[in-house]
Amino acid sequence: MSDYQPEQSLVLSKPVHPQRLLLLFHGVGSSAQDLAQLGKILGHQDPGCMVVSVNAPFPSSVGSGWQWFSVGSVTEENRIRRVSEAMPVFLQCVRYWQGQARVSAADTWLLGFSQGSIMALESLREHSLVAGHILAIAGRLARPLEYASSGTRVTLFHGVNDGVIPMQYSQDACRQLQALGLTASVQTFAGLGHGIDQRVLEALVTVFVDGDDAI
Asked: pTM for this one?
């Protein structure tokens, strides 16, 4: 597994002295550009936040774009191994940008869509805090959690009509996180498939602006 390379990621906002850090992680087959507009909108809400849309490190194995792990012939069993193999590079990525921003894990926000959400949620297995907040859109846990690092607040967002990753996965993840003592909630959106619409955007802005008071 190679080391994380930041060159293709997009720094959307970099205050002189950032107070918090927002990292956005796209889905498989996409790129940092796909979440750039969302990052700009969220960054506009907080001039003290450094915002980076992260480009996944590996070329997609199914078509164009980039990925953290391959979804080719993916199963419940091999997904676990693929996510675990990608996690060291994911953690390198988060720590690299924390170093660039000089921001602590507690003041770091991870926003993931689909595969990016899976990676962000998997980081909860780390025994040291990776991020203070996770915004997980249209994602899932790669496997059941028996442990999760304390101190992370998680908000999940999911379309009711998602045919790629069914909404039930976010609901299950929320229950597991709450059972482990984390502050977690899930918001669902009628008529929405595997994507982000204006309602999700507005919900994201609310959580991002209100912070701890949003859940």
From this structure: 0.95
